[in-house]
Amino acid sequence: MPLPEPAQRELLHRRSVYCDAFRREDGLWDIDARMTDIKTYDIAENEEGNSWATDEPYHDMHLRITLDKQFLIHKVSAAMDSMPFGMCTRINKAFKKLEGTRIGPGWHSKTRELLGGIQGCTHLHDLLKPIATTAVQAIFPLSDEKVRKASAVLALNSCHTWSQSSDMVKVHFSELYVSESSKRFEKDLMG
What we know:
This protein has a four-stranded antiparallel beta sheet, with helices on one face. The protein is globular. It has two domains: 13-143; 156-191, no CATH class. By secondary structure, it is an alpha+beta fold. It starts with 12 loop residues before the first strand and ends with a helix. It has helices spanning 107-115, 122-126, 128-139, 145-155, 167-172, 180-190; strands spanning 13-23, 29-39, 59-67, 73-82. It comes from Leucothrix arctica. This is DUF2889 domain-containing protein. Pfam families: DUF2889. InterPro entries: DUF2889.
């Protein structure tokens, strides 16, 4: 179902985020993400003498995460093809701090701890959430039953469809299902 018809308007800015998942010959996975920001008008010269023409990306940033089927990150690479300030690229190597971490519960908090604020780049950091969901979407359906069940545990209670008491969990992951009445009973017992 599409969005309702909008009011009369003018496009001024487009942020595009792309994520692609690749299965490698060595059994690992690459998740490549790219983010671009484009204006529909020229951007005047900034303090460093940089300017951007209409439809020319002033942010064009890339992040690659290499991980295994258990979502353990083996390698991280960051690159910037376009950015407002030359010093922006100095932070690329900081994203290697993610190597050895595992995408799963608490990972987004861990990324903020390692790369939040002045320890990272807001735009590259913003790519981590779609990278994580792309990894799950790519790896989960092709995984063996053990990995699928472990992944289901990670997804449990992450949204209304994955609620422990949802019909989807009841049908596809019955061993993880907890009825609403059981939840209420447990809550009443605990006071």
